[in-house]
Amino acid sequence: MQVIALGGGGFSTASEPRLDTYLLDQTRKPDPRIGFIGTASGDAESYLLKFYSRFGRLDCRPSHLPLFRRTPDLESWILGQDIVFVGGGNTKSMLAVWQSWGLPGLLRRAAEAGTILSGVSAGAICWFEWGVTDSESSALEPMVCLGFVPGSSCPHYSGESERRPSYERLIGTNQIAPGYAIDDGAALHIVDGVPIRVVSGRANASVYRVERNGDRAESLPLVDLEQVDVSETPGQGQ
Fold first, then answer.
1. pLDDT digits over 112-159, tens only?
2. How far, in Å, CA of 223 to CA of 6, rounded?
3. Catalytic residue IDs
4. Cβ-Cβ contacts under 8 Å for 216 (sequence gap 6 or more)
5. 162's torsion region: left (phi>0), alpha (psi -120 to 50) or beta?
6. pLDDT band at 237 (very low <50, low <70, confident <90, very high)
7. Percent of the chain with pLDDT over 70
8. Strand 128-133 vs strand 116-120: parallel, antiparallel, or unpaired?
9. Which pTM value belongs to this model?
10. At what angle are helices 45-55 and 17-25 packed, to 10 degrees?
11. Which domains occur in the chain, in start order?
């Protein structure tokens, strides 16, 4: 099972474009099928436009899965993708809708059959056992996610000032399992639950392992993994 989790960026912000092409390259196919799920944003038209504007210019076959309008056959659509990319937004609402439609089981089947699971923000943390979310406006809170990847995750680590102190506090006080923090502009590539690669789409973007240390937690860059800088590297379709 492959998961590629983006902390922020990519096509959704018109930045780090080679994070997008990195995804396509991992399929090892000349014309991969990439499907976008925008449930977390309520299938926002503006988000769909960004997706098609980006991937419509690359060597791939983009499509999207609507869950708030007429919905296609879910099994056929999900199992037919080489990559499933999940957008950002409200993680709690997204997972509730997915449960109603039976998506978690289908997504697991697809991943076990070779589909790459990916996403940004809500679409990154959803694959882990736990995620740090701002789905409720009062504060950043832990929530139970799908559990395809062990541990927890927190996106936007460099982009939002409250992310690091909140995640370290939650881990340090045993409110959430230790895990991985992902900067905007970076991605963590995971195979069968084990991180194998840090992908940087901009200078200094990184991924951290966040562990308890006594009654506190500390964030340590994953320097022992393969480091891939795609910020200046031509990718698929370039």
1. 999 999 999 999 999 999 999 877 666 788 999 999 999 999 999 988
2. 17
3. 121, 156
4. 168, 172
5. alpha
6. very low
7. 94
8. unpaired
9. 0.93
10. 70
11. 2-229 (3.40.50.880)
